[in-house]
Amino acid sequence: MFDLFKAKKGMKVLDVGCGTGIFSIKLAKLGCRVVGIDISDKMLEKAKEKAMVENLDIEFLKMDACKLDFADETFDAAISVAVLEFVLDYSKFLDEMFRVVKKNGRIVVGTINKDSKWGKLYKSEAFSNTVFKHASFKNPEMLGRIHSDELMEIRECLFIPPDLDENSYNMENELKYSKQENGGFICALWIKG
Q: In terms of CATH architecture, what is 2-191?
């Protein structure tokens, strides 16, 4: 995610679907001015608490990702991690991110790959009583169809299959499985033209 995002100190960043603030906090620690939005009051409260403990000045707002309450070209960049799975109209979701990002700004989205063993696991009966029962996973081809003229790169990671022992989660196995598995997580980068 961060290899594609290329955070720079002082840049104004929108974290769409910030949840408990994990990526908002990481970006703020890199010197970004961050605004995190989420639809969940509970998640936003947790994000605010975590930012306060870290003594970070992050603005957290309740907002629908498909109806962003910001003027056009407000942000230098936007990021969204593990949110696209839960958005009904992912085209509108990305259109809104494009609208609020300045020209030449980066938009980076990370999501579970439906064409991976991880995507299959999250859609299995084992996860039928979790939030993932509402998920609609995407694959690289689906992401590539949106703003295709501004799409710069799609990368995959998390090649290690979910059925391995947790001690098997290391870079050596990640590289080994990258030759034979689809990545469980995909990251896409667009640069607004």
A: 3-Layer(aba) Sandwich (3.40)
